[in-house]
Design a protein that fits this description.
By secondary structure, this protein is mainly alpha-helical. The protein is built from 3 helices and no strands. The protein has a domain of about 25 residues.
Length: about 80
């Protein structure tokens, strides 16, 4: 058998940073937007229901889709992406 020829460095063990608060990494505009959304009655319940129904992976895939469309004038041989909006 042949050995794999990847020249990747050895994996380092993960270091959990317990001294850092997650709030310190939030952008002030994001923090304000979250506070205003949480002030809407029932918003947390709706978000929990959506995550429970679709799942986090499905939502990530939904937002990962490309907004690029194909124009009717583009040929099949063309590989360029032409926005339709």
């Amino acid at each position: 058998m042949t050995q794999p020829t990847n020249n990747l460095p050895a994996a380092r063990p993960r270091k959990v940073l317990t001294q850092i608060a997650s709030v310190s990494w939030e952008h002030p505009a994001d923090r304000a937007a979250l506070q205003s959304l949480r002030a809407v009655p029932g918003f947390d319940m709706v978000v929990k229901k959506i995550y429970g129904f679709i799942g986090e992976r499905g939502i990530r895939l939904l937002f990962r889709q490309t907004p690029c469309g194909w124009a009717p004038s583009s040929s099949r041989a063309s590989t360029s992406c032409i926005p339709t909006c």
